[in-house]
Amino acid sequence: MPRRLPHLPQRPPRLPESIARAAGFRLIAGVDEAGRGPWAGPVVAAAVVLPHGWGSRRARLPVRIDDSKALTARQRDRAFECILRCAQVGVGLACAEEIDQRNILQATLLAMARAIGDLPIHPELILVDGPAAPHVEIPCWPVIHGDALSYVIACASIVAKVTRDRLMRFYHRLLPHYAFDEHKGYGTSRHCLALTQWGPSLLHRASFRPVALSMPVAPPADLAPLAGQKGR
User: Fold this and answer.
1) CA 110 – CA 46 distance, rounded (Å)
2) How far apart are the first and last CA of the chain?
3) For residue 75, what are the CA distances in angstroms to 26, 123, 178?
4) Could you tell me the CATH superfamily of domain 16-166?
5) What stretch of H or E contains 33?
């Protein structure tokens, strides 16, 4: 491992992995998240370490790897299974309560730190999608639009997205009236209607305005003892 971290631009002119390897790093992890914008459910992060040398233009997985948003659900599922077979993977999440307590950015960084801690190996450098990096002891390189520029970050984006989608489908079985299997917690007209009809669940992010607006308004303090009493 190199003794010092070289200057690493947030908008690299070529593949971040190539720059990192030229600087002497061998075990390179990519980290990305899924679920910053939804009204419900956790934010999920994934950390992926490919075998040394993989991710170059000559050594890639036998499936399409791209930013998860650019792939179909079937393509993501195929890539997800291939990544799990060929790479070292860690996953972490921050729940709705942690998002409300910390804010979505800090909760995302917490989920990323947990994903890194879940890796079975210790990487030398972490490539992170976006302008901010989690608070970990391993050197981090934040890369803006990293899921489009870095092969290993794209792998992490796929793992995070598929993991979160499957988790939201599980939550749908517990709370079917919210249709989490359809919108995965994002703000859709059907989700808005469900909030109007049922109010928020424990999976909803109370700090997000659409959810907060659907919550019952507390009575003034001087009327609180009378709240819930029927008129005589």
Assistant:
1) 12
2) 77
3) 28, 27, 26
4) Ribonuclease H-like superfamily/Ribonuclease H (3.30.420.10)
5) strand 28-34
How far apart (Å, rounded) are the C-alpha atoms in residues 70 and 108? 21
CA distance 123 to 112: 14
Separation between Cα atoms, residue 59 and residue 15, nearest integer Å: 14
From CA 181, how far away is CA 26, in angstroms rounded? 39
Rounded-to-integer distance, Cα 216 and Cα 75, Å: 42
Number of Cα atoms under 13 Å in the Cβ half of residue 179? 13
User: What's the pTM value of the predicted model, to 2 decimals?
Assistant: 0.87
The position carrying tokens 């490539």 is 127
pLDDT for res 80: 96
Give residue 57's pLDDT.
57
> Nearest CA to 117 among 95, 139, 93, 90?
90
Alpha-carbon gap, residue 125 to 38, rounded angstroms: 30
Structure tokens at 58: 């000559």
Cβ neighbours for 211, distance < 8 A, ≥ 6 positions apart? 39, 40, 195, 200, 204, 205
Residue carrying the six token digits 């890194």? 116
* Residue 219, token pair as written in the block: 């009575």
Would you place residue 62 in the very low, low, confident or very high pLDDT band (cuts 50, 70, 90)? low
Distance of CA 134 to the CA centre of its chain: 13
